[in-house]
Amino acid sequence: MTWSEQAWVAIEPIYQSIVAMPFITELQEGNLPLEKFQFYMTQDSGYLEHFGRALALIGARASDINDALAFMRFGENAIVVENALHASYFQDFGIVERGVLEPACHHYVHYLKSTAALDAVEVAMAAVLPCFWIYKEVGNYIYTHQRAIGNPYQRWIDTYAGEDFAVSVRRAIECCNRVADTATDYMRVRMIDAFVTASRLEYRFWDSAYRLVRWE
Ligand SMILES: Cc1ncc(CO)c(N)n1
Ligand SMILES: Cc1ncsc1CCO
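Above: query sequence and 2-(4-methyl-thiazol-5-yl)-ethanol SMILES. Below: predicted holo structure tokens.
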């Protein structure tokens, strides 16, 4: 099994709980309450900025120059997507400002930034992979299962189900497999652990948006 196949097996139960969660089923049906989507959008805007910074840092630390270039571009794209959210989705969904990073988002971005800064670069690549891969799978899942016509969240679905995003996802998976190929068994295990941790934080991110979890 390749590293990525092994990693996906490790998170399959988490992925199955993600596609079953009300945030996702209601997004798919187009009946997710606006307030929950607005909460998600503001948090995701903060997420994408910090995620972009973490990706650029991984790029700076990558051993292979092509991996460095790939991750710097991912970082750039994440910030471009953030800017697009601000320019259009915020207006479309009546969001005035981003506000603070609430607990789930705060936890996730700081996990990614500290891993990118202080852990082995292979582990950092594995930690950011769920952000690519799970979104792709969820985007595809919603796209193939949706029945609603005129879904207000269609643009979100199209972004992650689209081919541009798929290209980045394949590239990120390929980087992880390549670094895993020459890594020690111990490093490969730490990469899996990081992949699992980030997948749990993906679950939390949606769950907290659904429940509107804010700082006390
Ligand atoms: C929380 C989260 N994870 C992954 C992505 C994919 O970019 C996103 N936009 N938000
Ligand atoms: C993973 C990811 N999410 C938004 S942009 C980006 C990098 C894709 O190039």
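The chain has nine helices and no strands.
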